[in-house]
């Protein structure tokens, strides 16, 4: 049997380990090899200004067959090397031929959300049924919302830009959008539009307020849920698995002890928690402050890692008070945070003396 007559699946397996330069040579050698070579060449496409390979966008726009082979696509355009509208027009044509995408990352100008605008021209809306990961620097507007409505399998969403609260409230995100979403990275101000989806991982930027914490609840009040905008929506058509946040990273200007208490109530299944605080302390936190936080953390049985403003806390088996200790019960200990002055006689004739570790003046404790 001639090599060129092998079934496509065998050719795909043979070509799989080959580098891109060899695949390009094979595609140009024989028309029988072109299909398998192109599938490998265009399966994963990563374009960036610093890599000087943005010209591939024109190739993808001119050959829809190649665009349809793309499974993961990432684009990074530097601010200092902003692309022209002609480039974005080519990108728009290429994107809407990538129906098999599983991952899409667009780091472009924040005002280029029209790239996600539906290009169906009056026909049925273009669907991206296999897309599971979407990351974007685009401003969150009606074009992004419209795109998310056409990604029913999306699991991971990463947004770097939000809009003003009034604009978000007016726009809304229909309940039927992204029903499988379990991971979100982006502005905390968009939380209200993501509840009550089955979120397990949240990495939030900007300020998380105590009022926003309610949107992390597994069962938010019906009045807080985004309304379904589907005309054919039945009573249970928008039912989703409850939110069960396990990994959470937040930035907050609220008092950290109060924020951690609120998070513990709304997210009882937390396994990893990171809190960065911008709250102004007029006095240095005392022992009662850390004790209050430690007591709150002890109410989270699944918690294994906790960080407060860069300080990593440790857990240890809880010391039994009555001699009886429940299995898995533990307590949390803050890192050393406060210097304590140790009484040491200091004589003037010893001013130039070098002290060892056992003679240190400061003993760090909490």
Task: Give a description of the structure.
The protein is 25% helix and 19% strand. With 366 residues, it is α/β, with parallel strands linked by helices. It has a domain at 1-41. A twelve-stranded mixed sheet has the order 1-2-3-4-5-6-7-8-9-10-11-12. A two-stranded antiparallel ribbon has the order 13-14. The longest helix is centred in the first third of the chain and has 11 residues, at 31-41. The protein is elongated. The model is unreliable at 223-227, 229-238 and 357-366 (pLDDT under 50). This is F-box domain-containing protein. Residues 1-45 form the F-box domain. It comes from Steccherinum ochraceum.
Distance between the termini: 77 Å
What does the average pLDDT come to?
A: 80
Helix percent band: 10-25%
- Main sheet record: 12 strands, mixed
The helix/strand class is alpha/beta
Number of strands: 14
- The H/E string reads HHHEHHEHEEHEHEHEEHEHEEEEE
Q: Outline, from the CA principal axes?
A: elongated
Low-confidence segments, given as residue ranges, are 223-227, 229-238, 357-366
Strand order of the largest sheet: 1-2-3-4-5-6-7-8-9-10-11-12
Pfam families: F-box-like
Protein name: F-box domain-containing protein
Which key phrases capture this entry?
alpha/beta, twelve-stranded mixed sheet, 19% strand, disordered C terminus
